[in-house]
Every structure is written in C-alpha cells, then in structure tokens.
Design goal:
The chain is mainly alpha-helical. The protein folds into 2 domains: about 1-110, Hypothetical protein af1432, CATH 1.10.3210.10; about 125-195. Helices cover about 60% and strands about 0% of the residues. Helix 2 crosses helix 6. The longest helix is centred in the C-terminal third of the chain and has 24 residues, at about 165-190. The relative contact order is 0.12. The mean pLDDT is about 95. It holds the Pfam family HD.
Length: about 200
C-alpha cells in the first residue's frame, strides 16, 4: 500500500467539485512551498496537510452539522494511523489542517502558517474568480452569476487582509488587483451589472 496513492484515490473518488478537489490541493501545496522558499519546511508534513485539509467537506466524507475542518482532521488521523505514521508528525499535520481556514489565527508550525496562506491565496486572483464562477449552482451561496460577482467582491475586499506571510501578502495584492480589474470590466460591459 502506498500512502500518497491512497490519498489521491480518496480525493479523486470523494465527489469533490473539480475546482475544490485534487487540483486545488496540488495548487495549495506548490504555492505553500513557493511562499516558504526561504525556510526549511518538512515537505512530507506540508504535503499531507495540503492533500487532506478539505477532505471532510467533500460529498463522500462530509457529515451534516460537522465542520469540515474537524471532519478533515478525523479522516486524516485515521488514514495516517493506518500507515503507522509517526505521532509527532501526525500532530503537525492535524494542527495544520485545523488552522487552514482564513478565519483561523495564523499560528503553529511553519507548515500550518504556509498552508493557511496558500489556501487563502487559492481563493483570490484569477484562480479565485474561476473557482467562484465554476461553483454557480453547486454551492448554496452561489446560485446565480450576480451572487458570484458579489462573492468575488467580498473575497477581493476581505481575503488579502487575512494573509500573514510577507511573500503571501505580496501575492495577495497582485491577486486582488486581478479581481478588481475583472470586476471593473464586468461592471462596464454590463451597465453596472444590470445585464449580467
């Protein structure tokens, strides 16, 4: 049995929307590594945390009224214990998963901090716009193009402020500008959103 192959299969078979599944996890992992180039992170811990941070919200694993962060931690713990994963490393993976959301305080290990920033950054800029619009009708908060536009504006306004690392803040500003250019173009081309 190969841990990385098992994780990939779990995600691929989870029913995750393409914008939120395997490719999102890959983007977050590589972006976290890019953000932390000047540090020596434990790449295995970072990789496992990035791959498993959202598994608890995918249709195949989500449970009603259970926060996906807690569910993801439980699933990750079970998977890694099955492979007799070293407890001290397991704790770091679980800590990173626990603090990966924008509303969490940036704290803990470097792996946790960079996972959190990369996860936030994957929701802004051109990639954030693409994700939001691909979720129209698949997310209860994004049922219409108008709601997608409102979400783009909300993310552009709020998420860059949540990024904590120096490299992350630099990228967040650029990605916010991408979103603002998009919104400005849509506004002009739709008579202030009247023709969306």
């Amino acid at each position: 049995m190969d841990l990385n192959q098992d994780i990939m299969k779990l995600i691929m078979n989870s029913g995750a929307h393409p914008a939120l599944g395997w490719k999102h996890c890959q983007r977050v992992f590589y972006l976290a590594k890019e953000l932390a180039q000047q540090y020596t992170l434990d790449e295995e811990i970072l990789y496992l945390a990035c791959m498993l941070h959202d598994i608890g919200k995918y249709p195949g694993y989500a449970l009603p009224n259970i926060d996906h962060v807690l569910r993801s931690k439980g699933i990750a713990s079970n998977i890694l214990k099955k492979y007799s994963y070293e407890q001290s490393k397991l704790n770091k993976v679980l800590d990173a998963i626990e603090s990966h959301m924008y509303y969490s305080e940036p704290q803990g290990t470097e792996e946790a901090i960079y996972l959190r920033d990369a996860n936030i950054l994957d929701s802004i800029g051109n990639i954030g716009i693409m994700k939001i619009f691909s979720l129209i009708g698949h997310d209860e908060l994004i049922e219409t193009p108008e709601e997608a536009i409102a979400r783009v504006q909300t993310f552009a306004d709020a998420l860059p402020k949540k990024v904590s690392t120096k490299n992350g803040k630099r990228i967040a500003l650029k990605r916010r500008e991408e979103m603002m250019r998009f919104l400005g173009g849509i506004r002009k081309q739709t008579s202030e959103y009247a023709w969306v």
